[in-house]
Amino acid sequence: MIEIVLGPNDLTRIRFARSPMEELLHSVPVLAGVRPLPIHGPWLAMTKPRVAGLDLGVLLALLRGPHVVPDFLALPPESVSGRFTDELDALVATPAATVRTSLDEVRRAHGLVPELRPLYDEPERELANLAHSMTAYWRAAVEPVWPRLCALHDAEIAHRAQQLTSGGLAKVFADLHPEAEYRDGRLRINKPHHTAVRESGGAGLILMPCVFAWPRLLVLHNEPYQPTLTYAPRGIAELWTGSLHETAQPLGDLMGRNRAGVLALLDLPLSTTQLAAYLGMSAPAVSQHLAVLRRCNLVTSHRSGRWMLHQRTALATELLLPDGQPSPK
Asked: Which of 13, 76, 176, 293 is the most exposed place for a label (fewest CB within 10 A)?
């Protein structure tokens, strides 16, 4: 469990932001298949030829771990809309001691692979090489779709800002992510692999939507950085036009587009509220579809804390596969 304690001064310093660097970082494991997410299929099809030949070994090694992303890779943005060049300059200027501290945290979590040893030994030199690789990847993979990502960020930030105005943090976190809960001035993030308490101490809190983070919730809580939550925005199902519906065809012809869309999203456990947000439907409508899918043994549901999470069954996965494609083992 990670706890961020927010005092009266912190509540006046809650802000929203977006970060090109965050989108870049979380897209790399998706592209490499470390986090296979069919919903990004159209982006993958477009991007893989563009990145062929790029050396992404060090970048992928930094991002392969399931629990720890080195803090120095993406510092909290100073404004609502960060610029990639500014974030890259900040990365290159990272002090050597800060790089090693972050890599020590990676080592404690899941070991330090050989690809990262030069970065640990010679941070100043290797950060320049890393920035070169990231620039090439940005131009090939993320910059072409950046306007589309920004449109989703803008809609999400407007929605959450309205929630914050009308109901405060309690309303914002009521449906932001199943792992997050705000109560009595404490933001609790359910991370079983990590235990920490951070007194924000007037630093406030940044809420940052990130498309490629889906469906995870990521927390930057280490001193001296401003506490930051990176989470998936609403509307991801419609990000790549038609992608969800193409994934769910021809099953949609049999059971209806909406139910097939629910199944297409449930490769990982999601709550009813999340499904409603991603699909642009009401929660009661999603609940009705889930009830039918459960009766047909296509969805299972289980409670996790205050959330009911749903996931498709192996049978549903088989039904979603294109004709002739073998089931993944």
From this structure: 13
